[in-house]
Design goal:
The chain is of the alpha+beta class and 342 residues long. It has helices at residues 81-91, 129-141, 215-228, 252-269, 301-321, 335-339; strands at 13-21, 24-32, 38-44, 51-52, 65-66, 68-72, 96-97, 105-106, 111-113, 160-161, 164-165, 167-174, 180-187, 241-248, 281-290, 325-327, 330-332. It has a 6-stranded mixed β-sheet with strand order 5-3-15-14-13-12. A 5-stranded mixed β-sheet has the order 1-2-6-9-4, covered by helices on one side. Strand 7 (96-97) and strand 8 (105-106) form a beta hairpin. It is globular and about 65 Å long.
Length: 342
């Protein structure tokens, strides 16, 4: 049974920690690998990234597998959430063995952050190590293959896309080869996800079944956004984050290629993208349950194409599942409040 989520990749689990109220609008999301880790890589294309331990994922470097990946709000401050995940893993003796005792481990926990500072009203309300621990505990407590909560939860709690509320979402597919490819995205882009001429989501133009909004509905949406422009002006720093995963056997170099091509999925759904004010970062994970055809040097291609497709689908879903926010930190209507459900 599949749930059309990152957890369709056997062994991966996802947990969120969310903080709202009292000036807070932020959170953390953790992707927990199966015990023993998953091959991982990263591709950073935004000009203003906030990341941790990404150098360890370079194919030229020592670390082969990671136990978890952290996506978090709070800009660079929120990277503290990874410390809580590291502590939880250390307690379970999960990480890179660095000494004779089984407790002598260093968990490598790559992390990336989105900018959501002040969106709940309090600039100092941001994720910390305790929130990271809460998110990894939620992941660990979930059943394998469980549905993943989506919308304004975890790292998507304070996410904003242009003038619209963003969020977190996921999507998955099973290829003809039997390989599963999935993505989880935090949509928090400086660019827009909406065609200004028609109101259609850019990402839905690739779905083949586009429902164009009624022109009157689109005009009303533009008027509403114009009225809110002063309260919901986009901040100078935004980021779209993604984890793309597969159950195929991949080398670190192949995983890095998957992370790179998955950025095409962001470019289809967000315009403009990869600016100096963005921190767009894509991680790739491979759990190694299915071997690619060794006689086919291009067997990776279908995984690369599917990874980008799943990122686009997840961004569309994140925008459609987000809920409106109107508070002391600003007002961001949801796409579906403005345009309705298809």
């Amino acid at each position: 049974m599949t749930v059309d989520a990152l957890t369709d990749v056997t062994g991966l689990r996802v947990g969120h920690a969310t903080r709202t109220g009292d000036g807070a609008l932020t959170g953390t999301t953790v992707v927990l690998a199966p015990e023993g880790g998953a091959v991982a890589a990263v591709d950073v294309r935004g000009g203003g990234p906030g990341t941790k331990e990404t150098d360890a994922l370079d194919p030229r470097n020592l670390v082969q597998k990671v136990e978890a990946i952290v996506l978090t709000g709070g800009s660079a401050y929120g990277l503290d959430a990874a410390s809580g995940v590291m502590a939880w893993l250390e307690e379970r003796e999960r990480g890179v063995r660095v000494g004779p005792d089984p407790t002598h481990v260093v968990p490598v926990v790559p992390a990336a952050c989105v900018f959501d500072l002040g969106r709940g009203g309090d600039f100092r309300a941001r994720p910390d190590a305790a929130m990271g621990r809460a998110a990894v505990e939620a992941a660990s407590a979930s059943e394998p293959g469980s549905p993943v909560p989506q919308g304004c939860v975890g790292a998507g709690t304070g996410a904003v896309v242009g003038q619209l509320k963003g969020g977190v979402a996921t999507a998955a597919t099973v290829l003809e080869s039997g390989v599963t490819v999935a993505a989880l995205v935090v949509a928090n882009a400086a660019g827009s996800v909406v065609d200004p001429e028609t109101g259609v989501l850019y990402g839905e133009l690739f779905a083949g079944r586009v429902r164009y909004p009624d022109p009157d509905v689109h005009r009303a949406a533009l008027q509403r956004l114009e009225a809110l422009a002063e309260r919901s002006a986009p901040p100078p720093l935004n980021t779209t984050l993604a984890v793309v995963a597969t159950d195929a056997v991949l080398t670190k170099a192949q995983a890095q290629k998957l992370a790179g091509t998955a950025h095409d999925g962001i470019a289809r759904a967000v315009r403009p993208v990869h600016l100096l004010s963005d921190g767009d970062t894509v991680f790739a994970m491979a759990t190694g349950a299915r071997t690619l055809d060794p006689a086919d040097p291009l067997a990776l291609n279908e995984i690369l194409a599917a990874g980008a497709d799943m990122v686009t689908r997840a961004i569309v879903r994140a925008v459609r599942m987000a809920g409106s926010v109107d508070g002391p930190g600003g007002a961001w209507p949801s796409y579906e409040e403005l345009y309705g459900t298809p």
